[in-house]
Structure formats: structure tokens, C-alpha cells
Design brief:
This protein has about 190 residues and is α+β, with helices and mostly antiparallel strands. The protein has helices at about 60-70, 130-145, 170-175, and strands at about 5-10, 15-20, 25-35, 35-40, 45, 50-60, 75-90, 90-105. The chain has a 5-stranded mixed beta barrel. It has a two-stranded antiparallel sheet with strand order 4-5. It is globular and about 60 Å long. The termini are far apart.
Length: about 190
């Protein structure tokens, strides 16, 4: 795979155009990148020439982009660079596209609030019911028997004291930590 992967910082130059296709939704917009340099002679910042890119975002990224980005928003775009030549009206023109892998607001210029989107297909993120029941049964057996193979309570997938991962994107530390906003009672000297 010899793709050229780039990260660009700039502004959304147009609104996001979202369309459904047979292979999934796609969102497109024009992205403007203007370099700024310090001019020592004038002791001031000067703008260079603006480069424009067409950014394409597919499926979930495209749908989330449509709901999140407006004209003028400062963005960071990461994706694969595509350069194509076409002849329009007898003139040869070069177009530069970015197939986006990730897009986000540039927090240098403001704040943003992230909101997780609920997905219709939860089979990819949830543990199947029969596996959860098996893990619960294994935990109950390990607690009730009190005897083991001599390898200790920390061995095996149903070990006592270890959380059963119902959310695979969380680490053990995240699942065993206090909930956000919970207030703990101090146990030691202050």
C-alpha cells in the first residue's frame, strides 16, 4: 500500500454536501489551507497563497461530518492524498482530493463538545448474551467453590476480582474506576 497520508490544518470553505450511494453515504466539502509566515522585514504575520482541497468522507464519518461542520469552521483533516488531472473546456486542470480517515475541529481557535452517536447495529460493541451468562456462571463457580487448581484467584477469564468486559473499548482500569462525578469518602488522614 503506497498511499500518501497527509494531515492538513485549515478551514471549511464550503458547506458539507451529503449524498447516499449504493456503497454508503459520502460527504464532500472544499477545504482551504492558508500558510502564515512571520515577515521579518515588516515585523508582522503574512498569509501565503491559499490551497484548496476537496475532502471526501464515507459512511459514519460522512454522516457525523454533515451534522458537525459549518462553513468557516477551523478543522484538522487526516487522510489519503489523491491527485488527478482532467481536461475541462480544452484546458488541463489538476485536482487534489483528500479521502478523509479522521476530521476534527481545531481547538486552537475555540471549544467543541463531543457527543457519541448511537448506532443501530450494536452487535459489534456488545457481548453476546450467552457469553455473558457463561462468564457470570464461571464467576459464581469460582466464588462458590473456593478451591482451584492451585494457580490462584487471578487466573482464567472468569477470575474473581477482575471485571468482565461488557464494553470492549474500555480497559480494566476504566471499568473498575469510580463513575465520573462520584465523590469518594477519604479513608486516611487529611
Amino acid at each position: 500500500m503506497n498511499d500518501t497520508v497527509v494531515t492538513l490544518v485549515g478551514n471549511a470553505a464550503t458547506g458539507v454536501d451529503y449524498r447516499e450511494t449504493p456503497t454508503g453515504g459520502v460527504a464532500r466539502f472544499r477545504f482551504a489551507v492558508t500558510p502564515r509566515r512571520w515577515d521579518r522585514r515588516n515585523s508582522a504575520w503574512t498569509d501565503g497563497s491559499t490551497s484548496f482541497y476537496t475532502v471526501c468522507a464515507w459512511r459514519n464519518l460522512g454522516a457525523n461530518l454533515t451534522a458537525s461542520v459549518n462553513v468557516g469552521d477551523p478543522l484538522v483533516v487526516h487522510g489519503r492524498l489523491r491527485v488527478r488531472d482532467e481536461t475541462l473546456d480544452g484546458q488541463r486542470r489538476t485536482f487534489v482530493d483528500i479521502d478523509a480517515v479522521s476530521i476534527g475541529h481545531d481547538l486552537t481557535w475555540g471549544t467543541s463538545a463531543f457527543k457519541r452517536v448511537a448506532r443501530a447495529n450494536t452487535a459489534l460493541t456488545e457481548r453476546p448474551v450467552d457469553m455473558s451468562a457463561a462468564a457470570s456462571a464461571a464467576n459464581a463457580a469460582a466464588v462458590g467453590s473456593g478451591s482451584g487448581s492451585g494457580s490462584g484467584a487471578d487466573s482464567g477469564p472468569g477470575a474473581v476480582g477482575k471485571p468482565v468486559h461488557t464494553q470492549p473499548w474500555l480497559s480494566e482500569q476504566d471499568e473498575s474506576a469510580e463513575p465520573v462525578g462520584a465523590v469518594g469518602v477519604p479513608t486516611g488522614p487529611l
